[in-house]
Amino acid sequence: MRDYNFDIDESINGIEDIKPLPKVYPCVPLRGISIFPDTIVHFDIGRDKSVRALEAAMADDKLIFVSSQKDESVLIPTFSDIYNVGTIVKVKQMLKINGDVVRVLVEGLNRASLDTPITEDGYMSCTVNEFPDAIKEEGLSVEEKAALRILTDKFIEYAALTSQITDETVDKTLAEKDPSALVDKIATELQISCARKQVVLEARDFNDRITKLISIITEENDISVMEKQLAQKVKESVDNNQKEYFLKERMKVIQEELGEDEDPTQEADEWYRKLDELKLEEQIDTKVRKEIKRFSRMAPSSAESSVIRNYVETILDLPWHSSSKVNMNLNRASKILERDHYGLKDVKERVLEYLAVIHLSKSIKGPILCLVGPPGTGKTSIARSIAESTGRKFVRMSLGGVRDEAEIRGHRRTYIGAIPGRIMTSIKEIGVNNPVFLFDEIDKVGADYKGDPSSALLEVLDPEQNNTFTDHFLEIPFDLSNVLFITTANSVDTIPRPLLDRMEVIQVSGYTEQEKAKIAEKYLIPKKIKEHGLKKDALKVSGQALSDVINFYTRESGVRNLEREIADICRKAAYWTVTTKKKTFTVTPKNLEKYLGKKKFHYDTIQGKSEVGVVNGMAWTQVGGDTLSIEVAILQGSGNLTLTGKMGDVMQESARAGVSYIRSIAEDFGINPEFQKENDIHIHVPEGAVPKDGPSAGVTMFTAVVSALTGVPVKQDVAMTGEITLRGKVLPVGGIKEKVLAAHRAGVTKILLPKENMKDTEEIPLVVRKELTFVPLEYAKEALPEALDGKLPKKLAPSKSKSKAKTKKQKTS
After folding, report:
1. How many CA atoms lie within 13 A of 234 on its CB side?
2. Has 806 been annotated as catalytic?
3. What is the pTM of this model?
4. Of residues 23, 528, 739, 781, which has the active-site annotation?
5. pLDDT tens digits, residue range 59-72?
6. Chain mean pLDDT for the chain
7. Considering 696, 707, 715, 737, which one is annotated as catalytic?
8. What is the sign of the dihedral through the CA atoms of 33, 38, 39 and 45?
9. What is the bridge-based pairing of β-strands 101-119 and 679-684?
């Protein structure tokens, strides 16, 4: 499109004039918006005519004439439907959104009035008459300056009364220096109809324009003040009782319209009745009644209503006064423990003593039991047996992997979806306030940014504090002092010290081979035969076959894997029963591999003759005891000590301490005192891929090094354990029972133990003790005559070279 066209008017005298035609502007009707000069506004265009008009402007000089519709409901307006006065704007930016809708950013330039419509078919276009403002601040009269000051004050008052304009917008608007632009920007920010804004837009005279705008703002301010006054008067005039009645009646009408049958008042009355029956403490009763009253005033569909409902129902469902009848018949408890568990004599005695104290003291204020032992040894089932023997209900909560404190104490009601902690939830579900509550795997509790659950357990497991345990969700105290808390753990090392201090630890040691065999015969085999649909006499497992299953197919302290292997045998028997019609099966060591496949594990056994520098040691693992041989080689060198076999730091330190002790007593056993200068010592522990650590191999490594240095072999039927000091004293170690059983299984007949560990041999089954000889050690050198297969060389006399060296040194000094 061009700005000028030329019409050639020919007369009889020729060409007289060439007159420029008026500029034709694309026209866009505005709906619900007015645009003033000197303002930047964005609006959406969706009508086809308006989009085409915009495209025509973008193809030329981006100028458009815009004017507001008189009636916003007209969908396809014509020139008769828009105001005569509008604004010439320049398109700054356009963006297509949501299909065919175009978002346009324009800048108002000048006021203009519609002159001549050109076309309405493809898009609206017209010629206009512009009347730009050219008003400068220094050209204003005193009267106009006063009016402009009044206008700015009224605008600030308007923004404060309506709260619809931000302070930032007010400051930005009033920063305008041009008087005409200031008036137009103030008119743009007013929240009034387009018709009222049009009055300001059509005012050509500046004084007239500012007067009309002041009148409009003053009227709006008066209306806002009046609205606030009326609202205050209405609020003060409504009496509290009338207001409550009005709201309740209105709520009923709303509920009927929405089809909601819930009646908060009726539900609240039911809660009041239950609360009266509970007869709670005054403080708790008052708090709950306050929440019920709040609920009765709310709409059932509100979010807060559901939170209060959950809160009140949880409190009313708690067993405040409901208890199980406790049976303290210790004979019955003893029978149940014997029925459900084989062995564990010390554990059963301690549990019965604990129950006896509770029976006599009529309270549970005492240490919390903590059953510590390897997996599969029956810790959880012991807690179940305690619950059954005392007539209490049983609750189990696994703490493995729990890292959120809210799991223990619950969430506060300010959070969406808040619920009580698992303790109070379990108490509510079990329905009594004195169950046996088991915290399983308490050593697996973790901590992160959500809190430390172990710290939350301090109050729960403290008999002096748990009578007022407060859940974050309930926010009222609940008495947990009647609950019998029991915890289980695999190790006490990872239990926080303050928490461990509140518990009495009972060690549940692993089962011996004989105990596992008895458990299998008495419990596991009959149980699995029944589970797999076999007849009672359909499957027989010989004693030796069962021993092979324990030794070569499982390696554990408990019996879980043993139970799985027995289940495998039963499955094979069930399959062959169906396919071969065979009725009975006998498992022996010869056919065991048909049921379970190749052997999975092996154990060291005493083989061959006595060797130099090879000693049998004993080790403790989480799955029981084991034997390990320690080998020493003496090489030509310069006194280097090499340690291999993936030894830990503590084990390496034991080896160095043993070598140093040997150097201090070398002459007593015929060993060259200068051996460390002429030889390298290499100590190796086989199965190098398996990490090994601990101080208990000190005596073993000492004996092996002495054997290698003297050339005297070590008896292969001897095993030993014990920590060694730099002075040769033997210190006690742990895991004696498991270590001795492993040595016995390997064929050892003599066990060398620290003197202070001799008392631990009482835990070893009598059958095993009868086949072993125990030798107490107070000093490491006492192990040599018991372990070495031959006599040591005689004591060496001090070397002459050494004496000469001393004399020479003394003379020099």
Report:
1. 6
2. no
3. 0.58
4. 739
5. 888 899 999 998 88
6. 83
7. 696
8. positive
9. unpaired
